[in-house]
Amino acid sequence: MVGIGVKGLNQYGDGLAWVRGSMIGKGGFGSVYLATPKISRSRYSYYPSIMAVKSAEFSASASIQKERMVFSDLQGCPDHIITCFGEETTIGDNGLMAFNLLLEYASGGTLSDRIKKSGGSGLPEFEAKEYTRSILRGLDHIHTTGYVHCDLKPDNILLVRAPNDSNEFQAKIGDFGLAKRAEVESKKRRLEPYWRGTPMYLSPEAVIDMVQEAPCDIWALGCIVLEMLTGKRPWSGKNTEEVLEKIGAEDELPNIPTEISEEARDFLKCCFVRNARYRLTAELMLTHPFVEGLEDDDDDDSDDSIEEDLSDNESIFSVSAESDDEFRSGSYCSSCEENDDNVEDESVSNYADEGEVKVEKVKGLSEERFHL
């Protein structure tokens, strides 16, 4: 059992009603373990037969505790956002106190795992459509609730077995450790000193101006969809600095291959609008032909209300792309190679207690140093 130390110690201990199992993941935030309920107790009857427990030493658990608060605010979208069953403080066999977040277990792994299994060819378009629609549903709820995810990427999209079909999985958004409250529209916008997230999926406004609001999640979604359809990352680059330079350049956009369907290409163009003001919202993107009208659509009624306000969806999507002068330039960078080992994949936080890594000024961007 990985959760037990070399000397047989349970590092973080068990909960009142659950037993810690093997470790299934590890990151800067802490570690993730499988967990199973002890015995049936009415107070904890809502626990599923298996959970994922995200744990960290209490003194270093600020990110997980913040994530718990975000989950509390995002209740009400269990089909598209990972469910949180609560939190608990435990004591390990060595006296170590830990903070634990009890989460829904994704037996299908991450979307990143699924893409890797495609062998570099990408997913079938019908599968990518289903996942995209579910992610959009989750994003719409997140943005409507007043949050920005800030770290949307395949690693943070979890595949949970569909309740009605054991052979299918539904995509759910997870990992809200870097989520932030959306800024209220005002003449004076408060700029953060650093950006948060993973470099490969950052939007132009995040790299150039350190602005991360709801449109940055739509840009990241485009990167995810492109990766699903092609099996390749949205940007090529020898290192993080090269990727940031391309994202920040006025005439660069991810390469959209001609081999994918016209609907998919148009959807990606709507995501990759460099000017955030012209990028469509998750609510409007849900009416795009690429994801509209899919089978098993559990939220048709909400789409009807959207469509009542739209006289012509096609014109809205075309205006979105054509309103951006930078997008009209049509200058795309080359597609990413299958493995960019030198490009940083880890999420980057702007929380002081999680440390900072400074990256030198990127050519063509701001004179300021980037804090990763």
Automatic annotation (TrEMBL):
InterPro entries the UniProt entry points to: Kinase-like_dom_sf, Plant_MAPKKK, Prot_kinase_dom, Protein_kinase_ATP_BS, Ser/Thr_kinase_AS
Pfam family, one: Pkinase
Gene Ontology molecular functions: ATP binding; protein serine/threonine kinase activity
SMART domains: S_TKc
Keywords in alphabetical order: ATP-binding, Kinase, Nucleotide-binding, Serine/threonine-protein kinase, Transferase
Compositional bias (Acidic residues): 293-311, 337-347
Binding-site positions, ATP: 54
Record domain Protein kinase: where: 18-291
Domain of life of the organism encoding this protein: Eukaryota
Protein name in UniProt: Protein kinase domain-containing protein
Phylogenetic placement of the source organism: Eukaryota, Viridiplantae, Streptophyta, Embryophyta, Tracheophyta
